[in-house]
Amino acid sequence: MAERLRLGDLEVRYRIEGRPDAPWLTLCHPLACDLSLWDAQMAALTPHFQVLRYDLRGHGGSSAPPGPYSFPLLVDDLLGLLDALGIARSHFVGLSLGGMIGQYFALTAPERLGRLVLASTTSALGPEVEPLWRKRIARAREGGMATQVESFLERWFTAPYRLDHPALMASIAGLICATPVEGYAACAALIPTLDITARLGAIRAPTLVLAGELDSSTPPAMAELITLSIPGARQDVIPDAAHLCNVEQSERFNDLLLEFLEPQSH
Question: What is the pTM (predicted TM-score) of this model?
Answer without folding.
Answer: 0.97
